[in-house]
Amino acid sequence: MALNIAVIAAVAAVVDLVPGGGRGAGIALQVIWLIFLATFLWFGVLMYRQNRVAVYSLGDRRRALLYAALAVATLTLTATSRLWLTPGGQVAWLVLLALAIYAVITIAWSARRY
Question: Is-contact 104 69, C-beta < 8 A?
């Protein structure tokens, strides 16, 4: 436990004291974020490959709605920083994500009824 705290304190000292440390920390944060997004994308591709037959058995309308909901959720999450700048944007963010989640849940529920 003490070693973990010492490591965090050392990294914080480097970021604070070394010239350009803040920029380096920003780059490291961006790299970690990109790795997270790449892992999320890889998981999505893996799930699609495993459930390809189930996705195609949804029919054209429900499959199009599923893809549209996923696209809306992706774009909304991508624009989070801009949407949260205004109160209207915050409401739009919540509504868009709620509708996308509702659409995905409704499609999954209707597909399991058969």
Answer: yes
Give the count of domains, the chain: 2
Cα–Cα nearest to 44, from 70, 65, 13? 70
Q: Could you list the residue range(s) of the whole structural domain that residue 20 is in?
A: 1-50
Helix axes 21-50, 2-17, angle to 10 degrees: 120
What angle, 0 to 180 degrees and rounded to 10, lies between the N-to-C axes of helices 87-112 and 60-78?
150
Joined together, the tokens standing for residue 23 give 């920029």
| Cα angle: 17, vertex 23, 25; to 5 degrees | 75
How would DSSP label each residue in 5-29?
HHHHHHHHHHHHHSTTHHHHHHHHH
pLDDT in tens, 18-33: 777 778 778 888 889 8
Q: pTM for the complete prediction?
A: 0.67
102 closest CA partner among 58, 65, 61: 65
Residues 65 and 106 occupy one common structural domain: yes
Do the beta carbons of residue 96 and residue 72 sit within 8 Å? yes
